[in-house]
Write a structure and sequence with these properties.
Blueprint: E1 19-26, H1 31-41, E2 47-53, H2 70-83, E3 88-94, E4 102-104, E5 110-118, H3 131-139, H4 144-150, H5 154-162, E6 176-179, H6 183-193, H7 203-214, E7 218-220, H8 221-225, H9 235-241, H10 254-272
Parallel strand pairs: 1-5, 2-6, 6-7
Antiparallel strand pairs: 2-3, 3-5, 4-5
Helix pairs in contact: 2-6, 9-10
Length: 293
């Protein structure tokens, strides 16, 4: 895990011209190349932060969300994920000291990078979506026609993910997964990994698949923040509270959000409350489904 006592300011993420972060935009034509890069980086960067973008929530509950049981929350998540198609997946890889994979260019420019995978699955002319969510994604740079023309087929992405070394597949894995309010994020990945099939009806079956694919070391920053004094709200608010600024891109872009999620996790794990992530009750606990497998 991240070593206790590491100073959060040691993260090598800088906005200076000589050292910056870039988002590697992944499409169907460069999917093989980018997964090859991920496989080469993974042994040295075993922390993986995840974010997804999807076309909003199309099924809601008649009752206030805060009054729902864990089972009812899972049913709502399952119903929405079964009805929706993925738009983007963002992945940030890091080592235990907070360092991202990097490239040193011939001109001496030092560039660290994260990944943003763009999918063709969602068809705005055919599929269900929440209009307000789609407009928000458009305003933040999502080009749905470009995704449709050049994007990745989620079945192809799932095949690469299975062979990448990122997944546990029921065995011990060095990889730790990090997300923020990640029930939907993992539900979309499980849906892809199981052949775009329907999610399991029962919550315990979904949690078993989560553990099989992603292992024991799954951390939800939204869940962790509940156990830290003064940390509450969405990703942007928690990031502000732990004095983390977005290094690249903007909100509702999966690459940028995955990086911000990692930065916030790193601050919690190294500075705010280092003991949290070593407690077994926090491993595998997703904010909306806080029932351990």
């Amino acid at each position: 895990m991240v070593a206790a006592g590491v100073n959060g300011s040691s993260m090598l993420i800088s906005s200076s011209p000589a050292s910056r972060v870039e988002v590697r935009s992944v499409w169907a034509h460069n999917l093989d190349q980018e997964f090859s890069l991920i496989r080469s980086a993974l042994p040295f960067h075993p922390f993986v932060a995840l974010d997804t973008e999807y076309p909003g929530i199309v099924v809601t509950s008649k009752n206030p969300y805060c009054t729902l049981t864990v089972t009812q929350r899972y049913d709502l998540i399952r119903t929405n994920v079964d009805a929706l198609r993925i738009i983007q997946v963002g992945l940030t890889l890091s080592d235990a000291a907070g360092n991202l994979p990097y490239t040193l260019y011939n001109d001496g420019t030092f560039v660290r990078y994260v990944w943003e995978f763009n999918f063709r699955d969602f068809d705005i002319d055919r599929d269900r979506y929440a209009p307000s969510s789609v407009e928000l994604l458009k305003a933040n740079g999502i080009d749905f026609q470009k995704n449709k023309a050049w994007g990745i087929d989620s079945r192809c992405f799932a095949m690469h993910l299975m062979a990448s070394g990122l997944l546990s597949l029921g065995h011990f894995s060095i990889v730790s997964w990090v997300t923020f309010q990640g029930a939907y994020d993992f539900a979309f990945l499980v849906k892809m990994l199981t052949g775009d099939s329907k999610l399991p009806q029962a919550l315990h079956e979904f949690l078993s698949l989560l553990r099989y694919y992603f292992g024991e070391r799954v951390f939800d920053v939204k869940h962790l923040s509940k156990h830290c004094r003064g940390l509450y709200g969405g990703l942007e608010k928690v990031a502000s509270a732990v004095q983390v600024e977005r290094a690249v891109g903007c909100r509702h872009q999966s690459g940028s959000d995955s990086l911000l999620t990692w930065q916030v996790f790193y601050q919690i794990a190294s500075r705010v409350n280092p003991d949290l992530i070593n407690r077994p009750e926090h491993k595998g606990a997703l904010f909306d489904l806080e029932l351990l497998p």
